[in-house]
Design brief:
single chain; mainly alpha
């Protein structure tokens, strides 16, 4: 078992990494949605990005509550 300060530091690093990744997906999604007429491939990309953002949000919440 890790000391409490090491575990807290690890959680903080993980949370920071997840937040950065979430922000990157948000930026990509925002850029994609600048075009009002999405191609079928872009529509699939929109869905994929939204799912990834949700997955990361769930992971961040899990880190915060454990």
């Amino acid at each position: 078992m890790l000391p409490a300060h090491t575990e807290a530091s690890f959680r903080h690093e993980q949370l920071t990494r997840l937040q950065m990744e979430h922000a990157q997906y948000s930026e990509r999604l925002d850029h994609l949605l600048l075009n009002p007429l999405l191609s079928p491939a872009d529509q699939w990309e929109e869905i994929r990005l939204k799912k990834m953002k949700l997955k990361l949000k769930d992971a961040m919440e899990h880190l915060r509550t454990d």
